[in-house]
Amino acid sequence: MASTVSFLHTADSQFGTGFGTLPPQVADLKRTSQREGFSALVQHAIREKLDLFLLSGDVFDTAHPAIADISFVKKELERLETAGVQVFVIPGNHDSSGPGSLWDQYGPWPGHVFLSPGFTSVFLADQDIEIFGMGFDRSHSSDNPLAADKIVPKTSRSILLYHGAWQNFGRELTRDYPFSLADIEKIPCNYIALGHYHAYSVVLDRPDKKAVYSGDTEGLDFSANECGLRQAVQGEISPEGQVTIKPVPIKSLLMEYLELDVSTYTLAGLDHAIQEKADARTLLDVQLTGIPSIELFREIPVIEQACRHLFLFFRIIDRTVDVQVNDLQKAQTYQGLYYRALKDKLAKATTEEEKTAIRQALQIGLAAFQ
Ligand SMILES: [Mn+2]
Fold it and tell me: pTM (2 decimals)?
């Protein structure tokens, strides 16, 4: 009789990424953390004696990663195989397969890497489970291979590794192997280990079938999908084919983003909102919008200085200078008149110097009206 099969699923580490929006020293810390986070997942799979380690694409950032990144990943995967955790890998759009790809050049790889452009499978007789996957062929990635009914498991339990774009997210309808929820519902596998979207997202959650994006292992920048806790997926498939999963937190350096409309904050309130995020392993990007009070306006340059030590990295982007106030477009008030007069001046300004001066005048003036 088959026993329970356990697995760890991760994706999108993108080793070799430049973390280009960060200062070089901070980017270095992110690179170190990125490796530590991945190693910790490997260690977790070994310690918990899991059966399978699933890597759903984009483990590398580019088609030509540095040798150091290749050796690192290989060593970690070898560690798993040596400990008896079977490794399954698919390439993604960043590290796609095909003749002459990094997978060909630097092989053999520990475990099994799916390289053929169509679905193939590996049957694990001991565990009575079949693992499906395919290579990532950039020249055909507008296709939807899931819709073609090519996955026909020869046993009652199966897993699919897939790197592609879920259409329900409303974007990328024509690229990166797009698929719909209906495609996923049709696939006769118990677990679909998805890669490509960087935020942990459960696409389908049924007792006998689950499809999950694990998300990446280290937040790459301050965009929404990269902010907050990073997680992998640990799961089990019972002899009857029931699937249970739980997220495994990854100890990454946290990316966080705050947009604060300063029209509604006092200085103390603003301070409090920032302090709530205070953490030595957090990188915080704060965007200030709206019109500050004159009190707050004077303090904005000071806040950045005062809060820097609370974070690994802290940055205020002052968008209050780009002030755009719909209420003032037509208001017959001193404030409205002032706003329109300066906006008009700004539109007619010809040099950058002049524009900067007018933006500041607008900012200070509106702050005074507040
Ligand atoms: Mn991708």
Answer: 0.89
CA 165 to ligand 1 center in whole angstroms: 8
**CA 139 to centroid of ligand 1, rounded, Å:** 15
Q: What is the identity of the amino acid at 222?
A: F
Ligand 1: centre distance to CA 273 (Å): 34
Residue 269 DSSP SS3 = helix
Return the beta strands (E) in the chain as ranges. Answer: 5-10, 52-56, 86-90, 112-113, 120-124, 129-133, 158-163, 191-195, 201-206, 209-213, 230-237, 243-250, 254-261, 279-289, 311-318
Angle, alpha carbons 246-247-249 (nearest 5°): 145
Distance 153 CA to ligand 1 centre (A): 26
Helix (H) or strand (E) holding 69: helix 67-82
Domains and CATH numbers, the chain: 5-250 (3.60.21.10), 254-369 (no CATH)
Q: Residue 108, preceding bond cis, omega within 30 degrees?
A: yes
283-341 pLDDT, tens digit per residue, is: 999 999 888 887 888 888 888 888 999 999 999 988 876 666 677 778 888 888 888 88
| Residues 69, 33: Cα–Cα separation, whole Å | 14
21 closest CA partner among 201, 222, 184, 208: 222
Separation of CA 61 and ligand 1 centre (Å): 9
**Residue 49: what pLDDT?**
98
- What is the number of other CB atoms lying within 10 angstroms of the CB of residue 268? 8
Please list, in sequence order, all residues whose beta carbon lies within 8 angstroms of the beta carbon of residue 219, skipping any fewer than 6 positions away: 198, 226, 227, 228, 230, 252, 253, 254, 255, 283
Q: What is the pLDDT of residues 112-138, one digit of tens each?
A: 999 998 999 999 999 999 999 999 998
Structure tokens at 273: 């909102």
Q: pLDDT by residue (tens digit) across 98-114?
A: 889 999 999 999 999 99
CA–centroid distance, residue 152 to ligand 1 (Å):
25
**Cβ atoms of residues 235 and 245 within 8 Å:** yes
**Cα of 96 from ligand 1 centre, angstroms:** 9
User: How many angstroms separate the alpha carbon of residue 196 from the centre of ligand 1?
Assistant: 4
- Residue 116 in contact with residue 132, Cβ under 8 Å? no
- State the pLDDT at residue 169: 62
What is the CA(12)–ligand 1 centre distance, in A? 7
